[in-house]
Amino acid sequence: MKWTRKQTSIMAIVAVTAFMSTFLISSITIALPAIETSFRLDAVKLSWMITAFLLATAMFLLPVGRWGDLTGIRRLFKAGVIIFSASSFLCALAFSGYQLIIFRFIQGIGAAFVSTTGPAILVSAFLPQHRGRVIGISVAAVYLGLAFGPFVGGFLTEYLGWRSIFYVSAILGTLTGLLAFVFLDKDDVSPDKAKKPDMLGTVLYMTGLVLMVYGSSRIPDIAGLVMMLGGGLALVLFWIVESKAAVPVIETSLFIKNRLFAFSNLAALINYVATFAIVFFLSLYLQKVKGLSPLDAGTILIAQPVVMALFSPLAGKLSDRLESRLIATLGMVMCSIGLLAFSFLSDKTPTWMIVVTLIWVGLGFAFFSSPNMNTIMSSVDNSKLGLASGSAATMRVVGQITSMTIATLFFAAMFGGQAIEAVPDSLFLRAVQWGFITFFVISLAGIYFSMARGTVRGYPSPGNDP
Q: In 3D, which of 195, 169, 191, 194 has the Cα closest to residue 114?
């Protein structure tokens, strides 16, 4: 496949922004103990350093996907880079835990703009038969960010302090913004797209997510349960409103009538629910139970994303030639086995066994992610690429939020409001073990949806009609 100069530029810009977002997430995870000490936060508030970013991203992903289809994806991409860069600088200057959480929320909004529009820009620039390959490269950039994040984050935290991570992110964001304004053309928006998406649905969707996530952090208080019920009701109303809206934020018919699209999104959601908290748990485990420095812990944690980055392009290329669901299902099975292995984690678990399990999970995730994303983007026509990209990104981030919520629920229920450093190692390990058992059970459902989705047109079908 020979690329034009324009295609090469687009590939580079999207890959850099994909790298940037995940680099920040993974590098901050390794810095959490340092942030906890700096602002004297308890376990639940500390988890909000991750959750606030993910919540904001989830709130804006679907609306931005629809706005991009209607008003132009390149303009929103550029706006997202600006928001991300500015908020990264503000995070570096935060002088309280609450301030940092607020700035992380704003940073998540910028990430939503970039995460939704980036894949749509990329897919629109290449022929359908090459999508798996370019998506694989983009996914590899995501995993490179995850790979470098723990190591670089550990190095920066140990020698320059956790604030330096945000300064680095601000610099990367600024450079990417300059590239985007130089190389990305203006959007060619046709008159029939000059419509406004349903605002009531947008408000219900955002309100529902906020109530669900914040309410979960207040469990077992009655107020938390009421918030979660209210959030669930808001999301049900959102679905009803969207099914009747003239210009919906999300076309519910895609999930009802297009099984290939619906099941692929559900498989992605479940996969991220089951796997995202692995790094969160292990980062705390390696520093608290094993007594490792941030740099040493980060060096161990790079095993999983390095394997993801190496094998994602191969998996994406294979999905252009073989049936995607078989490759993706194999990956989901491998992830499930890895989660079960992590449920036996103890203070005596050798480091080499942790590394081997991380490599195994990384390989499984690589075989799942690229083929699954290729299936989602190939299950809709070009007029809905922004919506499909936003939907896939929403599944990812909602899955990540749910994963963190489950981890937070175990911490809140078992730690009694204590800081993680004050909790006995035995109690901490019990919470982590139950967390991994829960994620293993959840992952089994992902295997079903991945296998039962049907096939992309053009592949031999074993009987499932997409």
A: 169
